[in-house]
Amino acid sequence: MDTAEYKPDDVNSVKILLCCLLHSLDSVINADELYDIAVDSGIINYFYYNEAIEELLKNDTIISALDDNGKTCFSLGEKGELFVKEFASYVELSLRKRLVYEAFRYKAKKMQNASLSLDYRDCDEGCRLVCGISDGETQVMELTLLTHSRTQAELIGERISDNPLSFYNDIINYSIQKRLEPDKE
């Protein structure tokens, strides 16, 4: 069996996967986004997903709340944290990592309408370039680079301005790449 194509075939595995994802993201996630990541990506079956969410909510493993816009969001409860520690190893590491990777890809796709802010701050050491990227609602990245001169900072800023989404994706992909490589034991 090719693990890259393996899909969980029982509700318990799906519950573990969803809790592992919420644990890895370590933040509240919109219910629609969680569905898109898990089901629309093709990793988790629609029926298993719905049954797993229902069971996880019923026993307070995940917590449901409304965000400022009135949309349902999920987060991992205390029981969920214990659940992940106890049962994560029951689902293949490659599958857990693939779902986390899909979450980052999904977030990156949502960045299509990203807005960029660049601020140049002269200092004794040269010039600090402060680069901010927002998805329209939330500041998703703020990065400060120290350059030798304002000219160098402006050149870097121009390059980032050419394709802010690519810049953001490159940083995210680099950041998660090491986490997604198989553990060496």
Structural notes for this entry:
The chain has 185 residues and is an alpha+beta fold. The chain folds into 2 domains: 11-110, Arc Repressor Mutant, subunit A (Orthogonal Bundle), CATH 1.10.10; 114-180, no CATH class. It has 7 helices and 6 strands, in the order αβααββααβββαα. It has helices at 11-25, 31-40, 46-58, 78-87, 93-110, 150-162, 164-180, and strands at 29-30, 62-66, 72-76, 115-123, 126-134, 139-147. The strands form 2 sheets. A 3-stranded antiparallel beta sheet has the order 1-3-2. The protein has a 3-stranded antiparallel beta sheet with strand order 4-5-6, covered by helices on one side. Helix 2 packs across helix 5 (93-110).
Can you describe this structure in just a few lines?
The protein is built from seven helices and six strands, in the order αβααββααβββαα. The chain has helices at 11-25, 31-40, 46-58, 78-87, 93-110, 150-162, 164-180, and strands at residues 29-30, 62-66, 72-76, 115-123, 126-134, 139-147.
Number of domains as seen in the coordinates: 2
Q: By helix and strand content, what is the structural category?
A: alpha+beta
CATH class of the largest domain: Mainly Alpha
Which overall shape is indicated by the principal axes computed on the Cα atoms?
A: elongated
CATH homologous superfamily designation of the largest domain: Winged helix-like DNA-binding domain superfamily/Winged helix DNA-binding domain
CATH architectural category of the largest domain: Orthogonal Bundle
- Residues in helices, as a percent range: 40-55%
Radius of gyration over C-alpha positions, nearest whole angstrom: 20 Å
CATH topology of the largest domain: Arc Repressor Mutant, subunit A
Query: Sheet bearing the most strands, described?
Result: 3 strands, antiparallel
The helix/strand order is HEHHEEHHEEEHH
Question: If strands are numbered along the chain, what order do they take across the biggest sheet?
Answer: 1-3-2
Strand tally: 6
First CA to last CA: what distance? Answer: 22 Å
